Amino acid sequence: xxxxxxxxxxxxxxxxxxxxxISTPESDTASEIDEAHLAKNNTKSKKEMEVLNEKVxxxxxxxxxxxxxxxxDKTVDTIEETNKEEVPEREEWSNHCDFFLACLGxxxxxxxxxxxxxxxxxxxxxSFLVPYLTMxxxxxxPLFFLELSFGQYASIGPAKIYKKLLPAxxxxxxxxxxxxxxxxxYYNMIVAWTVYYIYAGFASELPWSKCHDxxxxxxxxxxxxxxxxxxxxxxxxxxxxxxxxxxxxxxxxDAEVYNSTHCVNNETTSFVDLQKALNRVSASEEYxxxxxxxxxxxxSWENMGDIQIHLVISLIIAWIIVALSLSKGVKSSxxxxxxxxxxxxxxxxxxxxxxVTLPGAYDGILWYLTPEWDKLMTVxxxxxxxxxxxxxxxxxxxxxVTFSSYNKFDNNCLRDAFIVxxxxxxxxxxxxxxxxxxxxxxxxELRLPxxxxxxxxxxxxxxxxxxxxxxxxxxxxxxxxxFTMILTLGLDxxxxxxxxxxxxxxxQAYSRFxxxxxxxxxxxxx
Length: 526
Known about the structure:
With about 525 residues, the chain is mainly alpha-helical. The chain folds into three domains: about 50 residues; about 325 residues, Orthogonal Bundle (Hydantoin permease); about 60 residues, no CATH class. Helices cover about 70% and strands about 5% of the residues. The strands form three sheets. The chain has a three-stranded antiparallel beta sheet. β4 and β5 form a beta hairpin. The chain is elongated, with a radius of gyration of 40 Å.
């Protein structure tokens, strides 16, 4: 809005002519002057406004950027749009079968093979199934379903989901991730051992089937001992890589020969068990401890020995396999589990068919199934059953939350939890028949009770079972099948734990990047 002030008579005279629309030379000249003056002012004003807008625009842009990150006065719609831009769409499994096999492969691991059968033998055979199944339905299955439902509902990893539930419990998520990280370290070392055994098994004769010149004096095999006995009419036994007269052996203990396994002291009428007195070590145990691990007689925490190059190479290969399988997240690991989750079941069936045809298999299976109900009155079998369920199903490691976070929101996770849990326990029971059929055969070969042959943990996988395999026809083939089965069982669990760790790290890194990047974007043009 403008106000014209008339300062002279000349302007007063021109005004009627302009207002009445009468055209005069003076009015035309004045009009042209006014229009030129106005156009000049308008041009000047536009330039000034453009300069002013350029100066203010930067400040406004910075202010608006700061406001978008820090202001609490946003509307709900603006917040939702911002969240949609900052939070990427969660990666999903290619199909439901990928998720199911990944969970099954993770649950069915080494514990099903080398721990459950031993616990059955230790706690009364078939009677151990009572606390085992009780702990499954009271503890294992509910926790399995809980973790699957957590991850599927929130679509985030274990490191952040507990913070969403209760901010004070954010450390709980990172605690599960740290457990998975620590377990993955030693678990991959077992995978490395398996890789080395697969490599060592590519030979016409398995290297742990006999004692060689580079083994210790205590190395002993029943086959070599039987050769010495047959060649000397039961007068010589195998000791220190060669056949030694029984009289010479018994004189070391101030005793006389009683038979091929015992000496007798006539003064005290006491017997000397040569198996224990000579500290005999099987060839398979010798190979595991001395050849592969590089242990010595004086090995201890203070004297740990040298680095074993063959194990370093095996460990590198194991980590490369894991890295390649997880290189594209669940898209690549979901395809690998089609082999690693199914292959162990095929080999278990083949080993069972071979095992039940061996002499002594019936005795071993009988030891496995014979119940001792009185042992259920103690606490130990119930505690071991709970421990086995927790470790076998893999709850509280964060891996189940990670796997289910890649699911679709409406997936039936209750059905998956039930099928995987039952499948895991069924595999444990089935593997008991496989293990004890071979252990029964070993007990008959060594002429020992089954209880002195069966072991738990690595002792069963890398000592007892390899020795049994060395006595089978086509032993290199059976060795390859067995250790590739152990490899796939270990890799499935390793995939899951490493995926849980990497998922947590990337989720946290992306969250921090977005929080910092908000201010960087706001002031980038200043």
